[in-house]
Amino acid sequence: MNMARLFILLLIIFAAGCSQPQPPLVVGTNASFPPFEYLGGADGKTVVGLDIDLIRSIAKQMDREVQIQNMEFDQLMDALLTGQIDVIASGMSITPERQAKVNFSDPYYKATQVVIVNVDNNQIHSVSDLTGKRIAVQKGATGDKLANRYSQSVLAFESAKQAIQALKLGKADLILYDIEPAANFVGDNSSIKLVTLPFSPEYYGFAVHKNNFALINTINQSLSNMKEAGQYQAILAKHIK
Description:
The protein is α/β, with parallel strands linked by helices. 37% of the residues lie in helices and 23% in strands.
């Protein structure tokens, strides 16, 4: 090997040795939305769920570690806009109002709103029955906005658990919430039940900063890869029974 080739080889080896690892992907979520994100694992304190499995798989394709930031749902958007987090993975519905502020990935889940009432409440049969009712919601969620179409008595809480407590104490007549987490809460509590009404479907997406085109394109490509390989379907089946 001549000296020129040896020099080039040494430069390549040196450059490879000096390459910096990718920074972690900082993910914002609200871990009170099972089965999409919630506290679980062996210690009961680890953020797990469908969204978390998806975003970890996406980050793996990017060769990046994941750093989870658990915060209140209504704080997520500000955290993203101010650069505290890179992406929101929190069962966030894609809406025109949110799209004006952030970029969403391709939809990865179709959902809808449902009503939660106390088990002895048989008064809700149609959307018109919501008019004037005391409606409990999670602050900042799509149910929060939807409730204002039907009532001026909307009680916004930081979490669904707080809303359920208000319902049980008679401070609210019903709760508007996303169908899968609502079913999860009702399944653990025999004193409340679900009522399904013909609300419009919603679609969840991962949210990133408006300027981060590279990240949203990578997320979309990763989702496409996962669906083609059957990995997305496996994660869905693991969490949605």
